[in-house]
Amino acid sequence: METFLKTISALRGSKVLFLCHDQADSDALGAAFALAQWIGGVVGVPREPAIHTRRLIEATGMDPVKTPDPEAYDAVVVVDAADASQLEPAVPKRFYLIDHHPDNQLVSHAAAALYDPVSSTCQLVFRLLKRAGDHPGREAALALAAGILTDTIHFHKGDAESFRAFGELLEIGGISYEDVKRLYLDDQRRDREVILRAALGSRWVKLGDYNILLAEIRTNIPTFVARALLDLGADMSVVAYEGPEGLEVRTYIREEMASACSLDAVDLMRAVPGVNSGQVWGYRQFAAFRRRDTMPGVLDHMIETLKSRLVTPRG
Fold it and tell me: Where in the chain are all domains bearing CATH 3.90.1640.10?
């Protein structure tokens, strides 16, 4: 921590890009914004931020640079990304990294990194700020709190530090839980409808005694929906979204199923016919796939690949 703090602090006064993953969520944007407020610099996204971050961007006055050229900056700090495919088409040649995702593929390539698989990247940034003796202002505190809230799925999961950090940020920023939650009220209503439609229209496949739910959605929130289907009771969920941005697929595997059947979500996704391994990232129980064109029958391919790899199912 101390070495990274000295390294990142030395960037002050330089032209710095805090680069989020594409379709940047609140955790990525919140962490990048707080860092930019502290060090000085700009927040960047490879193409577009996620739809649900609209109010956060407005509330903080954040102005993310879209499709930035990393070579135009003195330094690039990659924030909340686990794989280079998440940074296309703005992959930097040299970068620093702050991230929390398990099985991060960028750590070994970073010039320096603050990496810890906790509940959110915003926690790590807040940890860094506290070690530096810096108190984030109201907007930065709001952004960090928003990142923690959404990456813990409104505290449906989360480690002890995420709860402590969230409370401290409310106090430091002079904000309330309602201030943070208000950023997502409209999107929550829309997202709930998407989740309900996905659940009601999902394809239910039983393999042994395992329940797999597969769904296609028309709103670009596949990660939220896949997690919701798992919380609903599925042992594994696979959700596909196809839109102007291309194809997005997300899958979650419950720990019990992953352990009993020797499954790794990333390996499974990469084994699906037509999937380019460079477009896949995640960890043992979660995998994401992105493709800039269509891929007919992706859910069928996914379930067939699962069948070929499933071992020792229950029942």
Answer: 2-185
Residue 206 tokens, joined? 């039983």
- Between the CA of residue 59 and those of 44, 177, 267, what are the distances in Å? 17, 15, 39
Start and end residues for every CATH 3.10.310.40 domain found in the chain: 202-309
What values do phi and psi take at 203, rounded to 5? -90, 125
* Check whether domain 202-309 has CATH 1.50.40.10, yes or no: no
Distance of alpha carbon 51 from alpha carbon 104, whole angstroms? 25
| Type of residue numbered 303 | I
Task: Give dist(CA 11, CA 41) in Å, integer.
Answer: 9
In this predicted model, what pLDDT tens digit does every residue of 116-158 receive, in sequence order? 999 999 999 999 999 999 999 999 999 999 999 999 888 878 8
**In contact, 78 and 106? CB cutoff 8 Å:** yes
Residue 280 and residue 272: Cα distance in Å, rounded? 11
- Looking at the domain 2-185, which fold is it? inorganic pyrophosphatase (n-terminal core) (3.90.1640)
Query: How far is the C-alpha of 279 from the C-alpha of 307, rounded, in Å?
Result: 22
- Here the tokens at position 11 are 């960037």
- Interval 207-238: pLDDT, tens: 998 999 999 999 888 988 998 899 899 999 99
